[in-house]
Amino acid sequence: MLKTDQIEIRALAREFAAKEIRPHSSHWDEKRDLDSDIFVKIGELGFMGMCIPERYGGLDLDIETYLMVLEELAWGDASLALSVAIHNGPVATLLLNYGSEEQKDKYLPSLASGSVIGAFALSEVSAGSDPASIQTQAISRDDGNWILNGTKRWVTNGDRAGLIMVFAVTDGETNGNTYKSQGGKSVGVFLVERDSKGYCVTGRDVTMGLRASQTVSLDLQDIKLTPDCVLGDPNRGLHYAFQALNVGRLGVAAQSVGIAQEAFEHATQYALERHQFGQAIADFGAIQFKLADMASRIASSRSLIRTAAYTMESDSNGIDRSAYTVPAMSAMAKLTASENAVWVTDEAVQIFGGYGYMRDYPVEKLMRDAKGTEIYEGTNEIMRVVVAREILKHASGDL
User: For the chain, what are the domain ranges?
Assistant: First the structure.
């Protein structure tokens, strides 16, 4: 059962999405960009710092409440929700878990207010589903500084972000220890500011859905970084990345539910208004069955997300966790919710009939947006690999 404060926060997010986001969603999709002032408005509500402690200006929400807010923002517009999720999820989470006190004091207040947007630069041309294959290099110099070179792809917020977390091969040692990936590489995470010399946005991808979200390529040319730009251990970046992806995948699941919920509401209303053969199409059993299945899939996705959020909270608090690990639960939630979102939006288009295929009606955009949730933060094929791996580890007692 939801707590009173969770219900109130969710209602606030729904009201904001209805008034400040949804009226602009179609326009943002057409112009392929978000209005910059929307992040200021979200920041004023505290939603740019949902996972950040109050002492840094954040709301310090638990993961379940954070995901409920994210769902409502996605109900308003999925591109905006994606930008907010990257900022709040992987970026803020890694800073909180591994940042020094100086790094937290420097960046978290600005991230919480929304005056600085965060980005997460992990993927590369040959390192999408396999982050251990990254080629970007960070070379440690004798004076303690680092030189960063490489390219990154599919970076959300990469052109509007003020702080970019860049993953790069270090292959160094810290206190005589290294953390090697399966590919034999050590990887570090580096805090790069947007105005750093050598930071260059080289292109923006034209995507099928989520068109207002910035998906860009980066060229990193001889960026000089001081030692205080390194996040945590410079050899444990992949370990950090996988932890961040657990949070990110739950964020994708919540976005998926928001997209599906919006499509379901449009389809339901249209079914009541559209008349054929002298009656509303909602009176036909075929349409009723579609709506029943849509509602059931949305409810099952939402339930699985709450279970996964509980597992993550329990794990972080040292409580005995369920039979499934955090990586497995996050992957299952992302897998199930995204595939349900694609199915629900497809059915919504079908209920709209010919109109559903037209740009003048909202459901075709939702169908395009939903497809992206099956791909980013790890394809659903990779999600199945993660779930199967964790199940077999648990069955063999190798935990």
Answer: 4-116, 119-235, 239-396
Angle (CA) 269-274-277 rounded to 5° is 145
* pLDDT tens column, 75-108: 999 999 999 999 999 999 999 999 999 999 999 9
Task: Identify the CATH class of 119-235.
Answer: mainly beta
Our answer to whether residue 44 is catalytic in this structure is no
CB-based contact 357:348 (threshold 8 Å): no
Among 124, 262, 377, 390, the one annotated catalytic: 377
CATH superfamily of 4-116: Acyl-CoA dehydrogenase/oxidase, N-terminal domain (1.10.540.10)
Place of tokens 């709506």: 291
- DSSP-assigned letters across all residues of 61-130: --HHHHHHHHHHHHHH-HHHHHHHHHIIIIIHHHHHHH--HHHHHHHHHHHHHTSS-EEEE--BTTBSS-
Q: Give the separation between CA 224 and CA 77, rounded to whole angstroms.
A: 37
231 has which bridge partners?
189
CA–centroid distance for 273 within its chain:
35
Q: Give 239-396's CATH code, choosing from 3.40.50.920, 3.40.50.970, 3.40.50.300, 1.20.140.10.
A: 1.20.140.10
Residues in the chain: 399
pLDDT, tens digit (0-9, with 9 covering 90-100), for 42-74: 999 999 999 999 999 999 999 999 999 999 999
Q: What DSSP string runs through 347-363?
A: HHHHHHGGGGGSTTSTH
